[in-house]
Design goal:
heterodimer; A: mainly alpha; Rna Polymerase Sigma Factor, Chain: A; Arc Repressor Mutant, subunit A; 2 domains; 8 helices; 0% strand; B: alpha+beta; 2,3-Dihydroxybiphenyl 1,2-Dioxygenase, domain 1; 3 domains; eight-stranded mixed beta sheet; 16 strands; 33% strand; globular
Chain lengths: 185, 337
């Protein structure tokens, strides 16, 4: 799993960034998908997931000098910042407009359980694999799932038939499933 | 009936998922389809590539700032930590700033029509309102009395409410005139009515139904700009404010029928001016992570300067620009705790 390689390299990456903030990049590249996957799983909308992710990395960069490697993985630190940011967001939102239904309790839990961590790793890997799809499949996935465009619109943009776009969507999802299964095998 | 292809079945599942409907139940549950559906469901949370790249470059910029001031290490961490809380509490990234004649009466109209609550009022020595902040639903509007420098500038607001019919009726009691009563036949699919208030503002009073293009967690108050050559506004907003077009519906000739544009955590809407819905150049207050950078960016995108960045007495780093359509954009970064 990607986490393993991260664990080995991580203390060195953290040390490098602590002495030279320009090297924070490497930590961002290592953990962006995980932090985003965590935020997206605990909040209701994309804008909040982005706000939380942005807040996590800005805070981590600003407070990097205070982070000490004592066996607490850097990711655990990032996720704690994220969990706190999500609680803050929920409090602010509740002040502005009481939610019609209570958010899931997990959304306010500062701890990340092992099962949630596995789900985050799984999803972060999937997000990374999208980047490795053939260009045209990747484009269909981004337009369909991120931009939420209709098949018709995507077909027009790509100059393809709607049937061809549906086939590309199927192949992309099949590819991703195969690679996810391979990674667990 | 011919068996539908897997590509078609998957797309039906994806389509239902994207509009948050229950997918049609298969007579014979299909294991192949179910495993693809699980992958598709996770893809719904896929991050935007532009967001990933923009955050990376923002962090790089901040990292280089912190390097250049490494000697003055004390205080820097705090300043950076403050910078991420750039939104003034209670406001989103986009707030309409409505300047009217008779701001006090206008606020009363908002209270009686939309159950608004007044959060702040700063009077002028002669009893007018220099600045006020009014909350409606989960959104807000800022209000002030017109002056010579800033004459009245009514605007159009798309307002999401629980009961558009009741709100519509209350606006009429408050002196508004109707464009049309709430109807289910609006092209948006929302139940939607429209009025003009006694101060000249348009209110498009709606309740979302089904899927409305735009972010989940819709804001109650969304500025609605009717523009000439609305299509040109989209690249301007992208270049000036890092905005993102979330749903653009154009005619084959390229006329924008409707577009939802996101800045930060809020959205505004635009369309091509038509019929009774003509341009109303207005004032908008946007909170951005870095006023100086966004101000410079907006000028490069073709805006003209109203105010260069300065530290305002109310704990904002603030600046103002005017776009080619005559709208004023007051940008700010909250510096308070």
């Amino acid at each position: 799993m990607p986490l393993g390689t991260g664990q080995i390299a991580e203390p060195r990456l953290v040390q490098a960034a602590q002495s030279d903030p320009a090297k924070f990049d490497a930590l961002y590249e290592l953990h962006f998908e995980r932090v985003y996957a965590f935020a997206a799983s605990r909040v209701r909308d994309r804008a909040t997931a982005e706000d939380v992710t942005s807040e996590v990395f800005h805070k981590a960069l600003a407070n990097l000098p205070t982070y000490e490697w004592r066996g607490v993985p850097f990711l655990a630190w990032l996720l704690r910042i994220a969990a706190n940011a999500i609680v803050d967001h929920a409090k602010r939102a509740a002040r502005e407009l009481p939610a019609p239904d209570d958010p899931p309790e997990q959304a306010n839990d500062p701890n990340v359980q092992a099962s949630e961590m596995r789900a985050i790793e799984h999803r972060a890997l999937l997000f990374r694999l999208v980047g490795q799809l053939p260009a045209i499949q990747k484009q269909v996935v981004l337009e369909r799932f991120v931009e939420q465009r209709s098949i018709k619109e995507i077909a027009q943009r790509l100059g393809k038939t709607e049937g061809a776009v549906k086939q590309l969507q199927l192949r992309a999802v099949q590819n991703l499933r195969a690679q996810m299964e391979g990674s667990h095998g | 009936m011919a068996k539908r292809s897997l590509a078609l079945q998957l797309d039906e599942v994806v389509q239902a998922m994207l509009v948050s409907l229950q997918p049609r139940s298969e007579k014979e549950p299909n294991r192949e389809l179910a495993s693809l559906q699980r992958v598709a469901q996770e893809l719904r949370d896929l991050p935007r590539e532009q967001f990933r790249a923009a955050l990376k470059s923002d962090l790089q910029r901040r990292a280089s700032m912190s390097e250049s001031t490494a000697a003055a290490k004390t205080g820097m961490g705090e300043a950076q930590a403050r910078a991420i809380h750039y939104l003034r509490p209670g406001l989103t990234s986009i707030t309409p700033y409505i300047i009217v004649r008779g701001a006090a009466q206008f606020i009363e109209f908002l209270k009686s029509s939309f159950e608004a609550t007044e959060r702040m009022r700063v009077p002028t020595p002669d009893g007018k309102i220099m600045h006020a902040e009014v909350a409606i639903g989960n959104g807000a509007i800022e209000v002030s009395d017109g002056s010579e420098a800033y004459p009245a500038a009514p605007q159009a607001i798309h307002l999401y409410v629980d009961d558009p019919d009741a709100a519509y009726a209350r606006t009429l009691q408050g002196g508004a005139t109707s464009f049309y009563a709430p109807t289910d036949d609006h092209p948006s699919g929302d139940r939607w009515g429209a009025v003009k208030d006694p101060f000249g503002n348009h209110w498009y009073i709606a309740k979302p139904r089904g899927w409305t293009p735009g972010p989940e967690g819709l804001r109650s108050v969304q500025p609605y700009l009717h523009l000439r050559e609305a299509d040109k506004m989209i690249p301007f907003l992208e270049a000036a404010f890092g905005a993102e077009a979330m749903g653009v519906h154009k005619s084959p000739e390229g006329i924008v029928h409707h577009a939802t544009i996101r800045i930060g955590n809020a959205t505004l809407e635009i369309d091509e001016a038509h019929g009774e819905f003509q341009p109303m150049p207005c004032h908008l207050h946007i909170y951005v992570p870095d006023t100086d950078a966004v101000y410079a960016q907006a000028l490069r995108a073709g805006a003209s300067s109203i105010d260069a960045p300065r530290n305002a007495p109310y704990s904002d780093r603030a600046a103002g620009v005017k776009d080619a359509w005559g709208n004023s954009w007051f940008m700010a970064t909250y510096l308070g705790q």
